[in-house]
Amino acid sequence: MIGIICAMRQEIEEILVFTKEIKEECYRNFKFIRGNIFGTECVLSLCGIGKVHAAMCTQTLIMKYNPDFIINVGVAGGIAPEIKIGDIAIASGVVQHDFDISSFEGRKKGEIAGIDLIEIETTKWITDKILVCSKSINPIQIHTGTILSGDQFICSPQKLTELKNEFGGIACEMEAGSIGQVCYMNKKEFGIIRSISDHADNSSNIDFDKFIKSSSKNAANILSNFIKSYRD
């Protein structure tokens, strides 16, 4: 079974288009949708926006369904200048940019207390397989690198520059970092697929509303290709 996590209704709707044998279940205030995607049993979850929602949903998904691995699918704001709206960002690792214990000696911004990591790497075979499955979808451009998460919708060139200087990264959003942390702590393999809906600048709130549907569809198409072929 594959666990699939989306934060928003628009993101999960594009995956439900190719999901069959749907059975909805509610557990601990989260909606879970069990179904069949190209012959593979999957459970989809709608976690809600933000790191706490995402972490709670991920832990609940693991404890109730124990999927073989988890894929987080959705949209994000682009950080790297070469990334355009509609492009795909595939995470090689995730960072929580708003986690800050750097006031303590020897600690760095983004370092997570308890596991003492700044970046949590995604599962290599999943990331590699997603990359291979992405190449057949044209004309979408594929980028891989670090995705930054924080409980902030980035809509500021100044904040964007700050994030670039502190962490680098290719995209920013509000869930993947906490999903990665929960998977890491549960020793659960995971991957992240994000499609760019905005540039995290002054117009990001306008672009987000305009492009969320098309960007969600791009991310869902990548997931579709992955599920079709991941056992090969």
Describe this structure in words.
This protein has 232 residues and is an alpha/beta fold. It has one domain (2-229): Nucleoside phosphorylase domain (Rossmann fold, 3-Layer(aba) Sandwich). It is 35% helix and 31% strand. It is built from 6 helices and 10 strands; from the N terminus they run βαβββαβββαβαβαβα. The chain has helices at residues 9-16, 51-65, 124-134, 157-167, 176-185, 204-229, and strands at residues 2-6, 20-27, 30-37, 40-46, 69-78, 88-96, 119-121, 142-149, 171-173, 189-198. The longest helix is centred in the C-terminal third of the chain and has 26 residues, at 204-229.
Strand order of the largest sheet: 5-9-8-6-10
Order of helices and strands: EHEEEHEEEHEHEHEH
Going by helix content, strand content and strand pairing, the class is alpha/beta
How many H/I helices? 6
Low-confidence stretches: none
Note the main sheet.
Answer: 5 strands, mixed, barrel
Report the count of strand segments.
10
Assigned CATH architecture: 3-Layer(aba) Sandwich
How many separate structural domains?
1
Distance between the termini: 16 Å
